[in-house]
Amino acid sequence: MSKSFMMLAPVVIFFAVLMGMGFYIQKRSSDARAENYSKDYYIGGRSLGGFVLAMTLVATYSSVSSFLSGPGVAWQKGFGWVYYASTQVVAAFLVLGVLGKKMAVVGRKTESVTAVDIIRNRYQSDLLATISAIVIIVFFTTQMIGQFVGGAQIFSAATGLSYEAGLIIFAVVVVLYTTVGGFNAVAITDTACAIMMIVGMLCLAYAIITKGGGIANIMAAINEASETARATGEGFDMVSPTASNSIPVQLFITQWMLCGVCTIGLPQTNVRCLAYKDTKSVHRAMMYGTIVVGAMMVGMHLLGVLSRGVLLSIPEGASTDTVMPALISQYMHPVLAGLTIIGPLAATMSTISSLLIAGSSAIVKDIYLHHKEAKKEKVNQSVVGKISIGMTGIMGIAAVILSINPPDIIVWINMFAFGGLQAAFFWIFLLGLFWKKANRSGALWCIIGGLGSYIFVYITGITIGAFHNIIVGIVVGLICFIIGANTGKPVDDKIGRIFFPEKY
What we know:
This protein has a single domain, classed as Sodium/glucose cotransporter. The longest helix is centred in the middle third of the chain and has 49 residues, at 163-211. Helix 1 packs parallel to helix 16 (334-374) and helix 9 packs antiparallel against helix 18 (410-434). It has helices spanning 3-35, 37-43, 50-61, 64-67, 69-77, 79-85, 91-110, 115-123, 126-159, 163-211, 215-232, 249-258, 267-270, 279-306, 323-331, 334-374, 381-402, 410-434, 440-460, 470-487, 493-499. With 504 residues, it is mainly α. The protein is globular and about 70 Å long. It has 21 helices and no strands.
C-alpha cells in the first residue's frame, strides 16, 4: 500500500462524512425551511446547544493561520510568538459574554437573522445596512481567499498533488456541504472539525516529541539556536519574550486588540449570538469555547516552537508556511499524517463555511429580501432557497478563482481582513447595543471614518511605532462615532424600548 494512499484515506473519509452530513441535514430541514427558509438556513432556527455553539464559534475563529502560518512563525521566532498568540484565548468568552445575551434578546424581538439585521433595526438606516453588507462581502471574500490558499497548500504538500488539484478537491467539498446544508450543516460540521483539530494537534504533538527525542533534546536544540542568535546576531533568540526585539510591546498590545477585544466586531462570530436556544447554552459555550480556544491557540503555537527540535531549517527563500506541511509529510507515519492533516484542513473548511453562509446572507437576506419587503412584494420561500444556495455557491467559486495565484504569507491576509471588519463594526455593535445615545449619524461616520482610515494607512504604509493599523481604525472610528452621535438625530423611543427596556 503506497504512502500517498495511506495518507489520503483518512482525509477522503473525513471529506465524505462532511458531505454526507450536509446532504442529511438539508433533507432533514427541508420541511422547516418551507415555512421560514432564511431563519433556518442562516441561523439554524435559533436551536444551538452549548457544546455545538462553542465548537462552531471555535471552528469559525480558528482559521488556517492557526495551524499553518502562526506555528510556522513560532518555529522561526520561538516562545515570544506563543505569548503573542495567547491573547486569542479570550475571544469566545468576550464574544458570548459581552454580546451573547443582549444580541439574542433583541434578535428575537426584531426577528433579526443576520448581523446586518441587527444594525438595520438598531440604527433604522437602509444606507448603513447596505454599506455594512458590502463591507462584509468584500472582506469575507478576502478572508476566504487566504483560507482556500492555505487549505490547498496543506493538501498539496502532504499528498504530493499539485496545488491546483488540491485547491479544486478542497473547494468542491467545503462549498458543496455548506451550500446544501446551510447554517445547521455548518454548525454540526464545525463541531466535527473542531474535534478533528484537537485530534490533529495531539497527533502532531506525539510526532514532534517522539522524533525530537523528547522535550529535553528539543529544548537543547532551541537553546542552541538562541545562543547562536545572541552571539552572531543572526536568527532569533527563541527563549526571549520579544524574540530578539522583533516582537515589540506595541505589537503585543495590538494583538490584544486585533485577536482579543475587537473580535466582538466580527460579524461571522457575533452572528452566533443569534443562534443559541437558551441562557444555559450560552453559559456552557463560554466555558467550553474558552478552554478549546486556549488549548488550540497556545497548543499549536507551542508545537511550532518545539518543532524546531525536529526540523532544523527550511529551504532558502521558502516561507515559514511550509514548516507544518513539511513536518506532517516527512516525519510522520502516513496514517498518522493523514489524521493530522485533517486538523488544519478542518480549521480552514470551518472558517470558509461560516464566511460563505454569512456572506450569502448579506446578499440574499440583507439586500435582496429587504428590497422585496420594502416594496411589499410577496416572497416565495422556495425561490429564496434557490437564490440562497446559488449565492453561497457563487461566492465560493469566485473565491476559488481568485485563489489560483496564491500570495506568500497567509497570516497577514487574515489579519488585514480581521482588521477591516473590526474597524468597520466594533463600535457599531458595542455602542449600538450598550449606549442609548448611539444613532444613525454616529454609526455612518464610524464605518466611513474607521474603515477609511484603516485602509488609508494600510495603502500608504503610514505606521505609528510598531502598532498594527487596527489601532488607527479603532481610534478614528470611536472619534467619528462620538461626533456623529452628538450632532445627529437621537434614536426614537420605539427603538429605545426594544434595545434599552431598562431605561424606559
